[in-house]
Design a protein that fits this description.
Blueprint lengths: L1 H5 L2 E3 L10 E7 L13 E10 L17 E3 L9 E7 L4 E10 L8 E6 L18 E5 L20 E2 L2 E3 L7 E5 L4 E3 L13 E8 L4 E10 L3 E9 L1 E8 L2 E7 L10 E8 L2 E6 L2 E7 L8 E4 L10 E10 L5 H11 L6 E8 L4 E3 H7 L3 H43 L40 H17 L19 H23 L2 H33 L4 H57 L2
Antiparallel strand pairs: 1-24, 2-7, 2-23, 3-6, 4-7, 5-6, 8-22, 9-12, 10-11, 11-22, 12-21, 13-18, 13-22, 14-15, 14-21, 15-16, 16-17, 18-19, 19-20
Helix pairs in contact: 3-8, 4-7, 4-8, 5-6, 5-8, 6-8, 7-8
Length: about 600
């Protein structure tokens, strides 16, 4: 039933381009339960984080992600995007998609990410991801050298002493040690025009309070616009020369060691400071044109040096509405809840089963456990089938022998066929064909005959009529067996019965290993899979349920596999054990009956 439910297809809609084999649904939640943005953001670049927890199909994409395409919810309109990092090996990617419009207060908007086209050329467009107002974007993703502006303005870095950190909040970041800086010279795009406004933003992490440190500052001879940190509070200020013309400071301390999105915005004669997408204060200001050096992590005049980490530093030469800043902050952070990740669909038949989705998310360690469990299941299955055939042959032979033994009158040794086939016949594999005529007597597979034959041999030794294994030729008045001789015969039969019981129980321990070890191995695979899923989520910062669910579901596959080994093995073990107990009971009864008949005959 479980497998049937998992194979129910997820039906999708029309397909944008048949050259692409797969697509993933991505939706946006601006409701109070999600990003909580009431207004409608327009032309905002949204961060899409992919990792093993929300996307198990890295192997179906090109190694560099060049086959990725983003299509609007109408499944017709391509969206501008670019890749900051795409690491298919470690299953981690950071992608920026320009959203023309996201409906405020709703969760109905969605887009599609298409992938799985080995012939596709790279379709990313970094410049097109941002509107004309975006003057500067630094991802800090490059491995060496100064960071690069990815906008169409391509603003050059004139100097940089900051260290690049490849494992930051969003891919790479920059680390400032207190005497580090990044400088960009004046340009046509890096300026504040009073009628347009300006917007600074950056992700910041500090470990200790700062002595009036600058995060970003646009400075010229007449004054400066500064986004910084004073003590443990964010601050936005306008300077005229060295005098403060306007200042806004957050009232709550920034949490040490945690990332915060800080933004300064000048629009409509007002200076506003945002922390994590929320306006924390504003002040009236008469903006003046400012066009000079842009410094990051320090100031032109020296001092005001930052000690901490920055990521995703941006400057817009026009003010941004509050919903735009909110959407940026709440799609990029570690606890960003604006973007939600839906199901994947396959072009062929335009469907993909839940089972396929789950299996594609299984990690390497999970596959190792599943393969071990698969081998264990094959072993258990061979034991169950082989033992069932083996016990069936013994049961059938015992029935044949009992029918003949019950017909005996007088000498109980009349049925003895000797030991031509040897006691080793019971060690034959169940998968070998049964003995045919001429290969052994008709009682070859009977455990009761083995007991009977050993009993006859003991009687012959005790009566001194024949050597062990010879055919019986008793006189009309057979010698009597003493009580001691009868007990010795019974002891011999008891020993033979124990050895036969051991043969019946052989390999049953493999089933007990499968019953007890299968669930524990499966649990081990699940625990490791869950650990990897949460580690991937921690690295990517995506904590919504759609990011967690695929990885957890895939991790549980190992537990399902363990139970799939243990449950059939348990049923098989109980059934086989019952059959073995029945044969053992028949042997105990036969020993008593044979000893009784022998004692009566030789009384």
């Amino acid at each position: 039933m479980l497998l049937a439910l998992m194979t129910v297809p997820v039906v999708s809609q029309a397909w944008w381009n048949d050259d692409w084999n797969y697509r993933k649904e991505i939706s946006f939640d601006l409701t109070a339960q999600g990003a909580n943005i009431a207004a409608t953001p327009v032309d905002v670049p949204v961060l899409v984080r992919l990792h093993a927890g929300n996307f198990g199909y890295f192997k179906d994409t090109k190694p560099d992600g060049s086959d990725l395409r983003f299509i609007a919810g109408d499944d017709k309109t391509p969206l501008a995007f670019h890749i900051e990092r795409y690491d298919a090996t470690n299953q981690l990617a950071y992608l920026w998609v320009r959203m023309p419009r996201i409906s405020g207060g709703l969760n109905s908007d969605k887009i599609y990410m298409y992938y799985g086209n080995s012939k596709a050329n790279a379709g990313g467009d970094a410049a097109g991801t941002y509107d004309a107002n975006q003057a500067l974007v630094l991802h800090y993703e490059q491995a060496s050298g100064p960071p690069k502006d990815v906008t169409a303005n391509n603003n050059a870095i004139s100097g940089s002493t900051a260290d690049l950190n490849p494992a930051s909040l969003i891919g790479g970041g920059a680390r400032f040690s207190g005497n580090s800086f990044i400088k960009l010279p004046a340009s046509a795009s890096l300026r504040l025009l009073p009628q347009r406004g300006v917007n600074f933003s950056s992700w910041v992490r500090i470990e200790a309070a700062q002595n009036d440190a600058y995060v970003m500052a646009l400075e010229d001879q007449g004054g400066s616009v500064v986004l910084g940190i004073a003590g443990s509070n964010a601050v936005a200020r306008i300077l005229r020369g060295t005098a403060v013309a306007a200042e806004v400071k957050s009232t709550s301390d920034l949490s040490m060691g945690q990332w915060h999105h800080l933004a300064l915005d000048i629009t409509g004669g007002k200076l506003t400071l945002y922390v994590d997408g929320t306006a924390v204060g504003s002040a009236p200001v008469t903006a003046e044109e400012t066009a000079g050096t842009l410094t990051i992590g320090a100031s032109v005049a020296g001092g005001h040096n930052l000690v901490g980490d920055l990521d995703e530093t941006q400057l817009s030469n026009a003010g941004r509405p509050a919903e735009w800043i909110q959407a940026a902050a709440r799609s990029q952070g570690m606890d960003g809840n604006l973007v939600t990740y839906g199901t994947d669909a396959q072009r062929e038949g335009e469907k993909v089963s839940y089972f396929a989705v789950t299996m594609k998310n299984v990690t390497t360690d999970g596959w190792v456990v599943i393969i071990i469990l698969g081998l264990m299941f094959v072993m258990a299955l061979m034991v169950m089938v082989g033992k069932a055939i083996y016990l069936a042959r013994i049961g059938s032979a015992n029935k044949v022998f009992l029918r003949e033994f019950e017909k005996l009158r007088g000498d109980p040794a009349q049925l003895d066929r000797g030991n031509a086939d040897g006691d080793e016949v019971l060690d034959r594999s169940a998968f070998m064909p049964p003995l045919s005529a001429g290969q052994g007597n008709e009682f070859a597979m009977s455990t009761l005959y083995r007991l009977y034959h050993h009993g006859v041999m003991e009687i012959q030794k005790r009566t001194l009529l024949r050597s062990a294994g010879a055919a019986a030729n008793l006189s009309a008045a057979p010698p009597a067996l003493t009580t001691q001789a009868t007990e010795a015969i019974r002891a011999t039969l008891d020993a033979t019965q124990v050895r036969l019981a051991q043969k019946l129980q052989s390999q049953m321990v493999l089933l007990t290993i499968a019953i007890s070890g299968g669930p524990f191995l499966g649990l081990l695979g699940t625990v490791v899979g869950v650990m990897i899923t949460f580690a991937a989520i921690a690295a990517s910062g995506d904590v919504n349920v759609n990011a967690i669910a695929p990885g957890i579901a895939a991790a549980l596959v190992a537990t399902v596999a363990g139970l799939g080994v243990a449950i059939p093995s348990l049923f098989g073990y109980n059934w086989l054990n019952t059959r073995i107990k029945e044969i053992n009971a028949d042997m105990r009864v036969f020993v008593d009956e044979f000893v009784t008949r022998a004692a009566e005959h030789h009384s």
